[in-house]
Amino acid sequence: MHLNLLTQSESRSHSPAATATATEARHPRALIDELLSDQQDLTAVERFARQHEQGELPAQAKHYRDLIPLSTPKAGQQYAFDVDLDACTGCKACVTACHNLNGLDANEVFRDVGLLVGGTAELPILQHVTTACHHCLEPACLEGCPVKAYDKDPVTGIVKHLDDQCIGCQYCIFKCPYDVPKYNKRIGIVRKCDMCSDRLGAGEAPACVQACPNQAIRITIVDRTRVIEDNEANVFLPGAPEPEYTQPTTNYRTKRVMPRNLLPADHGAAHPQHAHPPLVAMLVLTQLSVGAFLVERIVRDLLAAAGATVSSAGQVYHSVAALVVGLLALGASTMHLGRPLYAFRAIIGLRTSWLSREIVAFGLFAGAASLYAACGFAFPSLLSPAMSSALSTSVIVFGLLGVFSSAMIYHDTRRDFWSFGQSGAKFLLSTLVLGIATTVLTMAMFVATSGQSELFTLAARPLLMAMAITGGIKLLIEVSVLRHLAEHKLTPQRKTARLLTGALVNAGAARLLLGLLGMVGLPLVLALDTTLPSTTAIAILFLLTLAGEFLERYLFFAAVVPPKMPGGASL
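RE: above sequence
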């Protein structure tokens, strides 16, 4: 027995593997040998291509029946993407297949590949992540759309975009925390992934599923209750927006233990966003118009209470000017739409969409303001004080409802820079500041044309002082975002502050200068002056204030940091 064991031991020691190991120990392989050896190992794409070339796959494999469910979802279930993070190599075959099959334009994508990074210097972690629409249980795009251009299939759970219904308002882009809907400027509508529902209906896998050489993407059936439970535990994906808002259904799985410091490769990046000039004009001018009606009514009531006589001609002059600006604002808003001819559809979503509510409120405001101005201009004798007061009140109520809806539109996107505390304060203070500036200007112009200076003499200085105080408060609120620069955590607000002191510093400095001059400095000087301000000085004050507000609203859009799925490393 002892001899047999010795013989076996000697036999093993002289085996080819043992001999090779001993040889490598005596003569280590050169680097060139290692590289040549590595080249013999095919990539996933090359193995995939070779299998097809050699006919190793059955003919029906192109349908990938093992990567899609064999039955439709039952009650309480729906389809969902399932992503194996361990199998995703970041090759972007899914992106290319999706792009080609759906006939997307050059810069249009429904699926993208991001990167998560973390770990330590000794053991760094790089994790590619393929992302598309998550076909959420509570899709924010569907909830916010003013024309109901989204539909969630009651059987499959797939969230589809109805291209024919879309007017291109792009509000769904603001609402979606995962940057899924994409605006196509060429055709003027938004489009998104629909999980290749026509292919699924025919028993064939979506393009991204078929194209993945590592079978990292598949379609599964998920239980909706289980999705909600998992999202409550916030186990969706590191670096992604928190899932409780829309309840995304995509399942990202891995057998590895991810490090706690795993973050998107573009976590520290912050770039100026699209400024949406038509929306800038619409917001500033609607708030100017509403403010003009509001301030004029306050001044008229205060003067009437003090026993002063208010000129009806001056009142009409002012209301017509405010109405014209309001109508210009509503006209400017249609320029933001990709399909403005279908703007009439925008009230369909009144039950769920703040955009629909804003449109209805400002539509009622425009109608009431037109009636108020027309009656005062064409039929002043028929407009009794009680009727005038009722019409003026309705104009102001509808206008303030419109301003409130405007603030809620952006608050409802859950972007930190657009929270109601900031958006609501900015919009209300803009309404007051611009309303005061407009009222003082129309008073000065009326005095210059009519020679009736009594009202201007009584109201000018108090209004200018109120403007300086209100404008100062507004500027303090605007610059308060810079306090986030001292935070250690890289929050969206800190990124906004970095944008305002970096890429947007020139616009920010110009806005601050115009605000200090137009909203604070000049009104204060004119209020303290013993002589009545000239029309020229008031006009300069108005233009400086208006220009400053346009810049503030530009920064409102450009400096926001939207939530999104993990992206690639920024160059």
